[in-house]
Amino acid sequence: MFEYIRTHQRLMQFLLLLIIFPSFAFFGIESYTRSQAAAGANVATVAGHSITQQELDNALREQMDTMRQNYGPQFDPKMFNTPEVRQNVLDELIARKAVTEEIRKQNVSIADATLQQELLRAPGLQNANGAFDNDKYKQVLAQRGMTPAVYEQRMRQNMAFEQLLGSVQNTGFLPRAVAERIALITEQEREVQVLNLKAADFAAQVKVTDDMIKAYYDKNAALFEIPETMKAQYVVLNAEALAAQVTVSEDDIAGFYKSNTKTYTSDEQRKVSHILIGFAKNASDDVKAKAKAKAETLLAEVRKNPAVFAKLAKENSDDPGSKEQGGDLGVMVKDAFVKPFEAAALKLKQGEISEPVLTDYGYHIIYLTELRAAAVKPLDEVRAQIAADIKKQKAAKSYSEAAEAFTDAVYQQADSLQAVADKWKLKLEVADGLSKQGNLGVPATSPVNNPKFLKALFSDEVIKKKHNTEAVEIAPSTLMAGRMVEYKAASKRPLDEVKAAIVAKITQTEAEVLAEKEGKAKLAALKAADAVAGFSDVKVISRAKTEDVPPQAFSAIMKADVQKLPAFVGVNMPGAGYMVYRISKVNAGNPDAARRASDAQQIANLVAQQELTSYIDLLKKKAKASVNKETLKVSPETN
């Protein structure tokens, strides 16, 4: 019954989840903190701050890009070009801005140590020894065009979102009486029999005339249309195609290595543990003095025997994020710790333990458990990667230089693609069976299925004048051009060719009508006088046990009034016939403690989500959010 209800999930996802699958959790975050000087009309106002037309357009574009990546050629950008979609995206922007304002008012902040622990737990960023790999961290962020500072600021903002909204979501609960009532409904069993009036059994009674066939053929002309198709030549110009023509010399590799030595240098890595003797920021001098004394006592113990550091951390540390790991903080990430802590940790040699270090959180005893010096990878180790990088750069430069000339050549030499293929050493490909929807026989990612290319290919310029298409940009830094080889206009299948299929369809439809008529008559008779003739054996079904009952029939059975038994329900089954169900008995069913607990949790989660929605609506009212309705009109066709 509750399969559709999602179980509780974290409100924000971090690092690789963000990097590989950009989630809506970070969608628009920057727009809440950026300057309001963005160009364009204001579409909404929240807490005295504007959401500009540019922000809304950017948000729509980000969503479209994500959908395009997920669905490829099947994605239709026109689906975003509606007032409803624009309203939904704007609502999300308003909600997030209202939440951000509440975070500011309540001074919700994320401690450096908390951020550090969350970062160190991020999946996929550990080296072979299980330690945080700072080089991999930087590399992954660089691939997304982000620096650690920018990413960590976003991460801090989203943790603040989670802290505020999570506290509200966690207040939702399901009263025990409601959970018990739902459990009883879920577990209730009904004993049923079915009388199946199959449409196939009535087919012999159907008489299909020529007039019926002609009428169906004329009314459903689109079903028998053969779309226009084309056989076409095409070429694709991109950096990948040009890379094969690029050569890389040893001098190129050596020079690149020398100029980019820093890229191949691994940073110094310091693995640290600590024991925190904490106190509040407004603690008295006496409390601080006691904390310092305790820290000095522990320091004396660990300096005598560093092997007990982890044990003492578990027993004494006030840092909940690291104490269970024996104080282990993993590999230090630059600027992730408060300055006094970081400065002290950077002075330590491997195996050294610091004096008590005072920060706003208390006194820290810092232990440098492992130190790896910075090291430069030898040229031989990175030679292949350097060669690939140089080739990629040269190919990108070649593409940049060739793009305009390619576009001009395709246009000026409109009667052939051979010249451009020869000039840039491109493969002249052939695609057959193309329609305006592409070719289902090849992968959706194939360039011949690109909507922009297909639109250009099926233009009058190509079909009637037999010219090349224009050079179409089908992806960033990728141009494609094509021309017609053979063309077949749209046509309609002759009636004789499809007559048998039409007869079968009419027969099926009319047989279903006869089955429904007979079924309704039997249903009325059974309600007047019970009978079991023709019914199947008894089946026991419940909301937790549907057996092989079709969904629409199951719904009808469970909604049936069973105050008087036997009860009967009739269900029309399109494509199959008509079914009459006889409900003879209702049982309480067997309690399932595990399922009850699972269902209750899922419903509680749904209640929590509703609490969260109500809270956000309240914040929007509190922030006096207003919308300029005129800005939600459909924009020109989105590309």
Q: Biggest β-sheet: count, sense, barrel?
A: 4 strands, antiparallel
Q: Give the CA-based shape.
A: flat
Number of strands: 19
Measured as a percent range, the helix fraction is 40-55%
Span of the ends, CA to CA: 42 Å
- Assess the beta-strand content as a share of residues: 15-25%
Rg (CA only): 35 Å
Mean of residue pLDDT?
84
Query: Structural class of the secondary elements?
Result: alpha+beta
Low-pLDDT parts are: 1-40, 635-639
Number of helices: 21
Give me the side-by-side strand order of the main sheet: 16-3-18-17
What features would you describe in this structure?
It is a single-pass type II membrane protein. Belongs to the PpiD chaperone family. It comes from Undibacterium curvum. Keywords: Cell inner membrane, Cell membrane, Chaperone, Isomerase, Membrane, Rotamase, Transmembrane, Transmembrane helix. The protein has 639 residues and is α+β, with helices and mostly antiparallel strands. Helix content is 46%, strand content 17%. The strands form six sheets. Strands 16-3-18-17 form a four-stranded antiparallel β-sheet, sandwiched between helices.
